[in-house]
Design brief:
- The chain is of the alpha+beta class and about 150 residues long.
- It folds into 2 domains: about 70 residues, no CATH class; about 60 residues, Nucleic acid-binding proteins (OB fold (Dihydrolipoamide Acetyltransferase, E2P), Beta Barrel).
- About 40% of the residues lie in helices and about 25% in strands.
- It has a 5-stranded mixed beta barrel with strand order 1-2-3-5-4.
- Strand 2 and strand 3 form a beta hairpin.
Amino acid sequence: MMSVMVWVWLAAVALFSFLEAATLALVSVWFAAGALAATFAAYGAVDLTSQLLIFVGVSLVAFAAVRPLAKRFLEPRFVPTNADRLLGAEARVTEVICNSNATGAVYLDGKTWSARSANGTDIPVGALVKVERMEGVKLIVQMRAAVSVS
């Protein structure tokens, strides 16, 4: 017949595993590993003090060994894009920018971009605009100066 402590440690493994599955935050998986090791110690009839030391020791070793590696893969990574360099740049309007009709385009950095007005005013073809921000693949622009088109 198995010792009561085997069942206690198995319950701890189940509890810590459930908590980890519920949060996915790498908070209690270390304790589940420690409790599993303590379960085997209890099954081998090791005294309670040693079981507790095994639980703490294995939990600490699991934390120290796996946490840095897991953190590296689980933390979101910011991938900078070259689009950031467009912010603040000047562009020339190639299609009338009209937010109410959802039309408008500017030419910048060798490419034609969809554009919308930052303040909602229409901007004519040929005007110089400053890029205020990006929303998806659209440039949100502010009129700089009107240019006469001949």
